[in-house]
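EI: anyone free to look at a 187-residue chain?
SC: sure, send it
EI:
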Amino acid sequence: MQILFLLAALSACSGIEVESRIAERSFSEIIVQAGLLSGAVEWKGTAPLCSGACSFSERQVLRASDAFSLSTVPAFGQPCSFGSGKALCTSQYRSCLTESQTLEIQCEHAEGYGGDIRPIAYYTRCALVNAPSTLCASSRQTVAVSMQLDVLAGAWYPGGYPGGFAKNPHIPPPYKLQARAQVWCCS
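SC: here you go
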């Protein structure tokens, strides 16, 4: 089963909303395999009735109902259907803050689906390009990353799709994507 990450990008000429997704190796898998997450956190709350809470001795880093665009070690698990969501907790760190980071992703393959009604662009065989050794400033540890995906140099013509959205790319690889990341940094 493919894990998919989504960005709704609007085509300026045609007005067709195009979803661009990283498939095969998800954004989360790319971040984890690059060794950019430190761990020392734990998700509290069990799907589908999530109402996770940290214990008195723990600090809550963040709260989420799903891991659609979120990367952590350990993984989020099943999404929540009800309740206030899961809590990402830590007893190792005393303070956490968020920082912004821009990550460049390069993909070697793309396919389009859905035709003109709901076109979806799937990018596969993706990897970080010029990956930093750490995502947090100073001595803080990265415990979570969320992202919003932007297509910088995609597989289809920007601003419109001649002859409708096609399954096969109009432009040859490599494809350049950018992830605007929010990073949770703790110390």
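EI: The CA atoms of residues 44 and 52 lie 5 Å apart.
SC: 👍
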